[in-house]
Amino acid sequence: MAKKGALRPEVLPPEGHRRYYDRLRSRIHGWARRRVGSPASTVLLAGPDLFVFLSRLVRDGRVPPGDKVKLAAVLAYFIAPLDILPEMLLGPFGYVDDVVLAAYILETFVNGQPPALIKDHWPGTERAMTVIQRVLRLGKTVLGGPLWRRMRRSA
C-alpha cells in the first residue's frame, strides 16, 4: 500500500519538469520570503503547485485531448524565456503572468472535471479551486488593468 500523498509513477512529472519545478520553487520561495504578505508573493507562491498540476494533468489519459492542448500550451508559456513579463529580465516577478494565466485556464478546466481527477493530481495542501481563485483575485491587482485585460484576451 502506497503511503498517503505518495504519487504513483505514472502521475509523476517527467524528469525535465521535476528539475524545472525544483528551480522554480527555489527561486520563488527565496524572492517571496523577502516580500512576505505582498500580493505578488502570494500569487507567485502558487506557481510551483500550478506547474506540477498542469504537468500531471497533461499526462493523464482521462483528460480530453482538446483540454490537454490548452494545458500543455500553458506549460510551454511557463517555460518560455520570453513572454509578457520575461523572467530573464524581471527575475521571479516575471512568473506572475505565467501563474495568473495558469489559474485562468485551470479555473474553467477544474470546474468541468470529476473531483477524483483533481484530487489525484493536485499537489497543494489547500483545495485547488481555493488557490486558483486567490490567484485570480490578486492577479488583476498585481498585473494592473491593461496587462490583465491583455492576458485574458490572449487566453
Outline:
It is built from nine helices and no strands. The protein is mainly alpha-helical and 155 residues long.
Question: If you had to describe this structure to a student in words, what would you say it looks like?
Answer:
The protein is mainly alpha-helical and 155 residues long. The chain has one domain. It has 9 helices and no strands. Helix 1 packs antiparallel against helix 2 and helix 6 crosses helix 8. The longest helix is centred in the first third of the chain and has 19 residues. The radius of gyration is 15 Å and the shape is globular. The N and C termini lie far apart (41 Å). The N terminus is likely disordered.
Separation, N- and C-terminal Cα atoms: 41 Å
What is the subunit organization of this protein? Answer: single chain
Global structural class:
mainly alpha
Mean pLDDT: 82
Low-confidence stretches: 1-11
The count of helical stretches stands at 9
Q: Could you give a short account of the major beta sheet? A: none
Approximate strand percentage? under 5%
Domain module tally: 1
Cα Rg: 15 Å
The count of DSSP E runs of length 2 or more, i.e. the number of strands, is 0
Layout: helices, strands, pairs:
Layout: H1 15-33, H2 39-45, H3 47-58, H4 65-79, H5 87-90, H6 96-111, H7 115-121, H8 128-143, H9 145-154
Helix pairs in contact: 1-2, 1-3, 2-8, 3-4, 3-6, 4-6, 6-8, 8-9
Output the keywords.
155 residues, 9 helices
